[in-house]
Amino acid sequence: MPQVHNWQLGRDMEYVHEAGQTERQFAAVFNINRCIGCQTCSMACKSTWTFAPGQELMWWNNVETKPYGGYPQNWDVKTLELLEAANPGGQTWNAGGGDGTPKAPYGRFDGTTIFESADAKRGADGTVAGEATVTGYIPTEEEWKAPNAFEDHATTFPKQGVTLPEHEGWFFYLQRICNHCTYPGCLAACPRNAIYKRPEDGIVLVDQERCRGYRKCVEACPYKKTMYRPTTRTTEKCIACYPRIEGTDPLTGGVPTETRCMAACVGKIRLQGLVKTNEDGSWADDPKNPLYYMVHEEKVALPLYPQFGTQPNVYYIPPRWVPRPYLEQMFGPGAQQAIDRYTKPSRRLLAILQLFRASRRIVFSYDIERGPKFDEINVNGEAVDLFDDTVIGYDSTGAEIVRVNVQEPVSERPGKINSI
Ligand code: SF4
Ligand code: SF4
Question: Is there an atom of ligand 2 within 6 Å of 41 CB?
Fold first, then answer.
């Protein structure tokens, strides 16, 4: 089986296909700290793509309340249990095992991925009678039925008030779409070769003509983002609003434009982009791309369950009030460092954070113009200077599309014109 490099694991791993470089890769950063759980993103997606008969239980974008919520219910716990059963006690990170470079920024994952744990069951001739090539499971219909179960449920009420920086009682919203993985589990498992990754932008699609509804992809996607449609007997999934990404949707004005779920986000938590990749599927050096800067230079945004091995391309700034062990099992060993950098941001990061939802056109690069110091705040006993820098975003053609200041403008309404 081909060996591919998975930078999120800090090592090579087995995958059913050779690594394929894409011209660009669809990617996004979600800032969990800012999400208000309004579900506008979920409704924007549903009203665009999944409103037809047979799609009633389909939410390509969903927002679930962790730790108890999940769509489908317990999707992550179930997959983690399968991996643990295949490799008892071995699903561990060697945080010192990497070299800190973009090839291994979080150390090395010493456990087995969804691909490797299935390989362990393979015979010498490479076949496994009656078993899948990827470790996974098919959720029941009941598990798909209540996407909002446990919404806003906290773990407990604090006994003696809130303890900072972590809270005794906590919950957080987890925003989920297809990760358009570099090594997709869904694609690896399809016996019809009906799933493909587009060379121009890395978007993962299901060819509806070839799909026969075997649901191998539903079983194999560890994030459970492929969904069976009984009326057509095929599988459907998030298509990353590709007409908007291409700029071919009439509303886009011909330039790459963010997806519906991103553009509609009320909390301004999402920033989407198209990053350049290397031959081995890793991200090419591009510090002028805001996503590259946050993921690879500041390491403030982390992949969701990197240990699954699919190299997902949606990244999360972890919630700062949640107990660290929970975050580490979900986002890997970089969780504490990411929170430290978010709570005490560098001058450049603070400016880049202003780009979230500042434009619906995709920002391909940015510049920062330095401004004067306007305030000083105290973060965990340390003084942090705030500067009124201006961040400027450019689209795919290099044209300026947005200009935002760190200091929020304040306007006062003249006192005498109150209408009531
Ligand atoms: S998240 Fe699931 S459906 Fe999306 S590309 Fe990855 S494996 Fe496939
Ligand atoms: S629209 Fe934005 S703020 Fe609202 S639930 Fe979705 S991700 Fe969160």
Answer: yes
Residues 6 or more apart whose CB falls under 8 angstroms from that of 214 comprise 190, 191, 192
- Ligand 1, atom 5, residue with closest C-alpha: 180
Structural domains in the chain? 3-352 (3.30.70.20)
- Do you find a cis peptide bond into 372, omega within 30 degrees of 0? no
The number of the ligand 1 atom at minimal distance from the alpha carbon of 226 is 3
Query: Rounded to the nearest whole angstrom, what is the distance from the C-alpha of residue 91 to the centroid of ligand 1?
Result: 21
Ligand 2 centroid distance, CA of 116 (Å): 35
396 lines ligand 2 (CB under 6 A): no
Closest by CA to 201, choosing from 298, 293, 258, 275, is: 275
C-beta of residue 213 within 8 angstroms of C-beta of residue 196 = no
Task: For 313-335, write each residue's pLDDT tens digit.
Answer: 999 999 999 999 999 999 999 99
- Whole-structure pTM value: 0.94
Tokens 């993985």, residue?
A: 181
Count of residues making up the chain: 420
Interval 204-238: pLDDT, tens: 999 999 999 999 999 999 999 999 999 999 999 99
289 lines ligand 1 (CB under 6 A): no
Phi/psi at 6 (nearest 5 deg)? -115, 100
Residue nearest to atom 4 of ligand 1 (CA): 178
Are 204 and 184 in contact by the 8 Å Cβ rule? The answer is: yes
Nearest ligand 1 atom, CA 179: 1
Token reading at 325: 């062990």
**Residue 112 Cα to ligand 2 middle (Å):** 33
- Probe ligand 1: pick from 16, 178, 242, max atoms within 8 Å of CB? 178
Sign of CA dihedral 385, 388, 389, 392: positive
Query: Tens of pLDDT along 275-326?
Result: 999 888 889 999 999 999 999 999 999 999 999 999 999 999 999 999 999 9
Task: Report pLDDT digits (tens) over 332-367.
Answer: 999 999 999 999 999 999 999 999 999 999 999 999
* 3 state SS of 376: strand
What is the number of the ligand closest to the CA of 37?
Answer: 2
